[in-house]
Amino acid sequence: MTLSPAYEENREAMLERVADLAAQQDKALAGGGPKAVDRHHRRGKMTARERIELLIDPDSAFLELSTLAGWGTDFTVGGSVVTGVGVVEGVECMIIANDPTVRGGSSNPITLKKSFRAAQIAAENRLPTINLVESGGADLPTQKDIFIPGGQHFRGLTEASADRRPTIALVFGNSTAGGAYVPGMSDYVVMVDGGAKVFLGGPPLVKMATGEESDDESLGGAAMHARTSGLADYLAADEQDAIRIGRQIVRRLNWRKLGPSPLTDYADPVEDPEELLGVVPTDLKIPFDPRAVIRRIVDGSEFDEFKPLYGTSLVTGWARLHGYPIGILANAQGVLFSEEAQKAAQFIQLANQADTPLLFLHNTTGYMVGKEYEQGGIIKHGAQMINAVSNSQVPHLSIVMGASYGAGNYGMSGRAYDPRFMFSWVGAKSAVMGPAQLAGVVSIVSRQAAAAAGRPFDEEADARTRAGIEAQIERESLAYFTSGMLYDDGVIDPRDTRTVVGLCLSVIHNAPVQGARGYGVFRL
């Protein structure tokens, strides 16, 4: 396979896409741009990612999430906040860091969505949360979109504490107005002397509201909060000291994972993950065998397939990945028929009985349509699969390798079904249906409406409409676009799949892993 012309063609095309992914991610890594970063450094401050790098354990991985949040919108790519899971003193923590180089770290609607997703991941996977705070508060031109829902952020901090998931705030700069409640509602608060400014209303607002003259330090400085108000638990000498104290706090949390530990003597895949660049066609219309992907991501390339002769356009089976047991469902030929749906429902139930997490590898155009299949019960069989996915209690991980269209996205545990993590390969697409199919449906409906009204059908106008719809759906189904809308947790290089899934499996085992003890009614 790896010596074929098709493999080389796929590999070259995928390398181009991977290079473009790096270029798109660079937009987020740039923050507010070189001038803003230089200005920030001249003030003696670190950037958000520099703070994270110093906070996490040396040579440990940082699983950054939603890097392309806001892609395709008027907002800065990344949403002026960096989120991800990092290891601090051996403990996996959710880290949420304001990016002060982008409009002072102020929060816009993308910031909010990205922060809410990070909080959801922390809650579902039982992670401590560390907020690296330096924010000017709400981005005032968008206040109508963030004021009301923004309160959920503070509510989440109190719920985390009640759930015995520690929350830590390291305050490096401004934490103003509603933002003052981030340290106010955190379990532990560290403030940088001479840098942190925490107040409900700054000097100008206090002057307008009360007529009182005040300055930043006496109103909300770190030293005042450490010595007078008691809001600061620790007063740090500088940013590096704040991070040192933050690591010290995590070290004393006495944190333990509640899920089962992985095997430690697992083997790397026998088949090279580098070959994922070429074994999968970049043309989504060309089917491929997902076993070629599975063998390049699981331990020892060992995969015990379940029901291999039945429902063959969906591959199911058992494996281990970085020592963790996992059940895998992978689309083979795109379309899901009744047999595939029934096979999936049974397999998901078995995984729940065995308390085994599930990995969904998407490449589906959806459930089969047509008179024969409707009469054969495709709706109720698809409903069985979706019922099994919806009521499954074991953690789900989803990777969109190729297409993820229609209800097939639902049956394969798409975003609406709350997988613990969901990523897309660069080049993947998600939509109601393919661009040509959707445009064709609109054309048929328009043609039927014209015939029913007894008016001539404008073929030229129809061609223009179809072309416009195809272009729109093509753009809106791109992985960059859907990731920009927070419909996944990031776009990844296919070669990174094993590493990313392994990190996710480690994270989900912070919480107990337990399958469903009952299901709703299955239509048989």
Percent helix: 40-55%
Number of strands: 18
CATH architecture of the largest domain: Alpha-Beta Complex
What is the class of the largest domain in the CATH system? Answer: Alpha Beta
Number of helices: 20
Task: Tell me the CATH superfamily of the largest domain.
Answer: 2-enoyl-CoA Hydratase, Chain A, domain 1
* Class per helix and strand makeup: alpha/beta
Rg, Cα atoms, Å: 25 Å
Tell me the β content. 15-25%
Low-confidence stretches: none
What does this 3D model show about the protein?
The protein has three domains: 221 residues, 2-enoyl-CoA Hydratase, Chain A, domain 1, CATH 3.90.226; 192 residues, 2-enoyl-CoA Hydratase, Chain A, domain 1 (Alpha-Beta Complex), CATH 3.90.226; 42 residues, no CATH class. Helix content is 42%, strand content 19%. The chain contains 20 helices and 18 strands. Strands 1, 2, 3, 4, 5, 6, 7 and 8 form an eight-stranded mixed sheet that branches. Strands 9, 10, 11, 13, 15, 16, 17 and 18 form an eight-stranded mixed sheet that branches. The chain has a two-stranded parallel sheet with strand order 12-14. InterPro entries: AcCoA_carboxyl_beta, ClpP/crotonase-like_dom_sf, COA_CT_C, COA_CT_N, MCCB/AccD1-like. It comes from Actinoplanes palleronii. This is Acetyl-CoA carboxylase carboxyltransferase subunit.
